[in-house]
Model the fold of this input.
Amino acid sequence: MLIDQISIFVSNQQGRLTDITSVLSDAGIDIRAFSLADTTEFGILRLIVDDPDGAMEALKGNNLIVRKTKVIAARFGDTPGSLNKVLQYLTDANIPIEYAYAFVTPENNEACVILRAGDNDLAFKILAENGVKLLTSGDICKL
Done:
């Protein structure tokens, strides 16, 4: 199952990231993972949250440019080479990766990667066929 990711257009201004996290905090939204990519003018903040619909509503209500996209969340052992193995399945199937970000859960000795592939549905299928543990939004909220 693909999960929802929230992407927010962020102007490069001091305190802007805090403004956005304040909106989510005030709405009771829990951020489970995030990535911020920037240029000199703006950035894209990508979030995995416990309530994507609530986040969309709160962010749009504060005049932010926001979009919901589908991504894959995979979990694997936090050991050398584990990420490479997961990515190799996609490379072998000629599936390009548009972007990815990761986090670890040291208490479980596991790592998670959030990724968007050129063909998410095919990537999901390939990973599942190779025994990669794929997460739901609910799974991520329990980590």
User: Anything to note?
Assistant: Residues 16-26 form the longest helix (11 residues). The CA atoms of residues 32 and 49 lie 5 Å apart.
